[in-house]
Amino acid sequence: MNYVDEVLAKVRTKNAAEPEFLQAVEEVLESIRPVVDANEELYRKEAILERITEPDRQLKFRVAWVDDNGQVQVNTGYRVQFNNAIGPYKGGLRLHPSVYLGIIKFLGFEQIFKNSLTGLPIGGGKGGSDFDPKGKSDREVMAFCQSFMTELSKYIGADMDVPAGDIGTGAREIGYMFGQYKRIRGTYEGVLTGKGLTFGGSLARTEATGYGLLYITEELFKSHGQDMKGKTCVVSGSGNVAIYAIQKAHQLGAKVVTCSDSTGWVYDPEGIDVALLQEVKEVKRARLTEYAAARPSAEYHEGRGVWQIKCDIALPCATQNELLIEDAKQLVANGVTAVCEGANMPTTLEATQYLQKNGVWFIPGKAANAGGVATSALEMSQNSERLSWTFEEVDSRLNGIMVNIYHNIDDAAKRYDMEGDYVAGANIAGFEKVAEAMLAQGVC
Ligand code: NDP
Questions:
Q1: Using one digit for the tens of pLDDT, what is the confidence trace for 34-70?
Q2: Strand ranges inside 96-202, DSSP E
Q3: How far away, in angstroms, is 318 Cα from ligand 1 center?
Q4: pLDDT tens across 136-149, in order?
């Protein structure tokens, strides 16, 4: 049997109850087939694919905390340290009721290749908990974060594993976790990224994922001899990634007409008002109904539906598997030119293949949203130097990194006669560097 098929079969058997992890592994292994076929004997002997699909270690722990009624609550915490061949483990912490080991493994696996694509020395990891910060008081969130970090602090460190934010983990949660780490370990180190600006955070980190998504999209259009000015964009989500993607799209002359949250979505043909969206989501932590109530040009709809709006560019920025085959068909029927993923794996495999077959330029999340982790790595550099760079310096490095990522994935696809297949390009370029480092470091 072919080596890729053999490993896929083993991974399916071993991880049968983790569909998101299997989906991520299948996508990567399918698209690196040409590289594996060209090196089959060496990779098989060295068990490169078995090793890269098995986390270095996975931690699962109890997180007990006391709510405002004096009741003890119990959540489950996770950290998967997937691969540190090219640098310390790096990846966010997701706080969402849907979190279980399979979600953290899928995200940690994707993170290996994404981090490699940034060109910076960071390995892949991910963590989180099934805790839901929504509707909790600040004191309850702090109680959870302190309990979570009390256990996690045993396994992380500035040169070992540096977590960051993700869904449900923003500046508030990172602040509480950093405080607890410092209290337990007694060291003031850059153990988390996404920190506040008064205690080691980097300027432009908050904006980085959304801005980076637009920088790579801009480069994609430029490379095809087109401009983003005047283009209509449809965005899903209204969290950190979505807000700054919308802001940068407007700065680049495009118009974003939708956003969404887990209960509904907004269509605003005059263009989303970013300041109002920030007020609703970042300050009040409220639902999108409040945006629609304050903005006469906006329509609010319950449920999901942003992909039915006619657009040139679609930017899924909410969560995994939120752009399905019916959505892909609707986007193609409406003449979409590009789909660039702000979220991690928001497009199902079937929808991705449909978009690609129909000539849509498709940039996967591991390339398109790498600006967040890249800027986290820049935060680590600033912490090590004990210096802070200006917003312009960080933003210009971010722009350079995203432009490089585009050309790396484009070149990798061309090298293997798959021009325009940015999924294959991203997986190949990300994999080649990690595989080379693993081979050089011997059996471990
Ligand atoms: P936030 O928590 O700030 O925002 C998430 C947004 O998506 C919210 O609007 C949320 O709605 C919506 N959402 C979450 N889960 C669901 C769901 N199951 N169904 C429908 N909508 C949902 O997270 P981020 O913006 O940070 O992250 C968004 C995506 O981007 C994730 O896939 C994340 O892994 C990825 N990412 C984030 C990076 C970062 O730097 N923040 C870096 C790279 C990738 P509601 O408020 O109602 O829950």
A1: 999 999 999 999 999 999 999 999 999 999 999 999 9
A2: 123-129, 161-164
A3: 4
A4: 999 999 999 999 99
Pocket of ligand 1 (CB under 6 A): 165-168, 209, 237-242, 261-263, 317-319, 342-344, 369, 372
Helix (H, G, I), strand (E, B) or coil at 318: coil
Out of 241, 282, 340, give the residue to mutate to test ligand 1, the one with the largest number of ligand atoms within 8 Å of its CB: 241
- Sequence-separated (6 or more) residues with CB below 8 Å from residue 69: none
Indicate the average pLDDT of the chain: 97
- Closest by CA to 285, choosing from 266, 261, 317, is 261
**Pocket residue to mutate for ligand 1, from 167, 322, 341, 375, most atoms within 8 A of Cβ:** 167
- Residue 115 CA, ligand 1 centroid: distance in Å: 19
The residue nearest atom 22 of ligand 1, judged by CA position, is 262
Which amino acid appears at position 108 of this protein? G
Residues 439, 444: Cα–Cα separation, whole Å: 10
**pTM (predicted TM-score):** 0.95
Q: Collapsing DSSP states into helix, strand and coil, what is residue 127?
A: strand
Q: What does residue 93 show for φ and ψ, rounded to 5 degrees? A: -115, 120
Tell how strand 264-267 and strand 299-302 pair up: antiparallel
Ligand 1 nearest atom to the CA of residue 209, by list position:
40
pLDDT band, residue 357 (cuts 50/70/90): very high
Q: Is the pLDDT of residue 1 over 90?
A: no
Ligand 1 atom at minimum distance from 344 CA: 32
Going from the Cα of 239 to the center of ligand 1, the distance in angstroms, rounded, reads 6
8 A C-beta contact, residue 21 and residue 36? no
The two counts, helices (H) then strands (E), for the chain are: 18, 13
DSSP category for residue 323: B
Q: Mean pLDDT over residues 327-343, rounded?
A: 98
Mean per-residue pLDDT for 424-431? 98
Report residue 181's pLDDT band, with 50, 70 and 90 as the boundaries.
very high
Nearest CA to ligand 1 atom 15: 319
